[in-house]
Amino acid sequence: MTDFATPAFRARTTLKAAALAATILAAAPAFAEEAEATKADDNGIEQITVTARKRVEDVQSVPLAVSAIGGKALEARFVPDVRAVAKYIPNVQLGQVQYSGATLSASIRGISFADIERSFEPAVATSIDGIFLASNTGALVDMFDVESIEVLRGPQGTLFGRNTVGGIINVKRSRPTGELGAKLSATVGSYGRNDYKAIFNAPIIKDVLAAKIGVFSINSDSFTYDARSRKAEPGLDRLDITGSLLFTPTANFEALLTYEHLRDRSHYPNPVNQSVGEQKDASGNVTYGGELACTAFGLCGHAADYEKSGYRASYGGLPFSAPLDADNVTLNMKYKADNFSIVSVTGYMKNKDSLNIDNIGDALNVSADPENPAYVPLFHPVRKLHGDQFSQELRIDTDFDGMFNMVAGVYYFQSTYSLDNQSVYVADATENPGARVDTFSAGQTVKSYAAFAETYWKVTPTTRITVGGRYTHETKDFHVEKPAVTLPEGGPYKCPDVNSAYAPCRNPHLAFNRFTPRVSVDQELAKDIMTYVSWSRGFRSGGWNGRPGSTPDSIGPYQPETVDSYEVGFRSKFWDNKAIFNLTLFQTEYKNKQEDQIRSNPVLPTSTITFVENAGKARFQGVELETQVRPVPELHFFASAGYLKAKYLQFIDGTGKDVSASKQLRYAPKWNASVGGDYTFDLAGGDQIVFGTNLKYVDKYATESSVDPAGLGREIIPSHTAVDASLTYTGHLASLKEYKISAFVNDAFHSGGRIVRSSYAGPFWFSDRIPNRTWGIEAQVEF
């Protein structure tokens, strides 16, 4: 029953009423506030400035692989959250890990790490308003209030530090405008989608203190339905509230304070059960014994039914629940003198999330009465977790007239998480202690200290040399407790334990020191034409397994990994700013590469163990192309393409054998490409109609490092081509800045859904799915 007295309900109801009233009154919407770092050129391509090197620069002049999209373009292309920017950027795959609230899955140039356990570090980092996130939980940022987004490809160990071996996604939200105004949006669409968003700006003290408030309500059903009741499964239910104050007492100083509260009660599609039984060859010889879920419990999937329904049918025993609560505070301060700036970035975040799911997505009938079936999950994990982080960066950025400039600073980071409890129940939906086969708690505190500097030397009027480095000292203190349970699956044990027979368990403390340099040389060949070569290094710290197995040795530790990237780039803008052509070639060398592996528990096969191993060596080689053409002001084309050759050079298994020939790198499609454009029809009175479209192709890729033991290729995700389109009418009324009515469709030519992630868990094989075609109608109005 709905609690009509809760603040969340009142806020959401008020927002819906305001949005609907405004859009009905004005008959529709407006473009997003344009990023301050972008400049429009009515006759050419929009110039975008970025902070990829923590200083404001034209994206075309930066000697590294960075792609940037401004807020206006994000809105025009109906990018709902950070995942969709991958449609426009080469060698970038972004998705959602639904096993933790609003968690981003990222792969850049084939470098990724898929596990959501907080003791494991991401390989691709996310930064929001200059704050590095300890994990990608909560990183699915809504694009409605975003000024710009930058995706930096390749290791960013010098300026951004730890755990950026694949790259970094840098999100910058809009600032208070200092003017009285509002922007309201309402969207309805497929699968019950109904979103309501609002931004309010106001001056508190003219030219001194400005305020901004944002409220976003995201709601929908799942695209899946319960195959037994035929009812839609629950979907998104997210409320995000932000508030910002911009203080500018003088022309030389500013302070921007932002608070965000996220309340996410979303549900996600139940997994697809792909477990199989015994496999035989043409001669009748057994080639694979099958997964326990199928061979012992008869849960052998519903392959024909899944395909017939377009992967919309769901057979789970529980709704897939992964709620999240988060509170974030950011303070950015900047003092600007004549030829240098001092910047302070302070952030504090805390969150609480949980999980309660049917991990196989295929329920077991425990009723003896065929007329009254009773379905329960076979494998039912329940977990509750909370964590927080604090970070402080202080840096100086020079702007001298001579040959030398630099960015230099110091950085402190601390994060703590506590997995209060994780328990796994077998053939049970009620968390009955008698059905519990695994339980544990764990936690970790990370402290990181760093000093960094990057220097820029203009040795000739057309030649620049960049030399930089970062020294990082990091510690990790871990604890775990695994009590005995009803069924004998291992334990009890705990760490730290001075009497433990396993030495690392006596004092689970780790310390790492790493230096991560970067060197590049760029040469201006002509006006707006530049080439560069670079070498950079990144590292990802070692650590502990926060999801322990039956014995203490399953906690690790594992060692740090190192990435060296070699890059050659060409950047050009020509035809009177009507065309851009960028080309990048890269080779990445991976040492001590960390791989997460999920395996059956040897003590109790109905449960699994996740561990991390330093697999050895890998190499990534590739080419990236990005281009834009605007032959006339009304027509804009954009395209990108990526090629990636990724392979293991060495993979040492538990017996000491090199099995690299049988391993494959995950989330590393060989080819990917996109092409799109928009055309603007100018109407009387400054009104416009804009038609836009984009095509994105992604080649097949693997989501498991090991080949499917059944020989069915279940770890391979097939190639996919998606076509998006939109039509927008923008108008003006005397009382409004502008209004806009839009219709859009994503993946127009594919119905139903598809599998995007497939995982082998020992006793079973499960996969995650997303919808194909979705559509919407949106109305926006800006005062």
Number of helices: 5
Helix content range: under 10%
Spans where pLDDT lies below 50 across 5 or more residues: 1-40
On the 0-100 scale, what is the average pLDDT? 91
Shape summary? globular
Q: Major sheet: size, sense and barrel closure?
A: 22 strands, antiparallel, barrel
The helix/strand class is mainly beta
What is the C-alpha radius of gyration, as a whole number of Å?
Answer: 26 Å
Bin the strand percentage.
over 45%
Number of distinct beta strands: 46
Q: Separation of termini?
A: 37 Å
Describe this entry's structure for a reader.
With 783 residues, this protein is mainly beta. Helices cover 5% and strands 56% of the residues. It contains five helices and 46 strands. It has a 22-stranded antiparallel beta barrel. Strands 4-10-11-8-9 form a five-stranded mixed beta sheet. Strands 1-2-3 form a three-stranded antiparallel beta sheet, with no helix packed on it. The longest helix is centred in the first third of the chain and has 20 residues, at 7-26. It is globular, with a radius of gyration of 26 Å. The model is unreliable at 1-40 (pLDDT under 50).
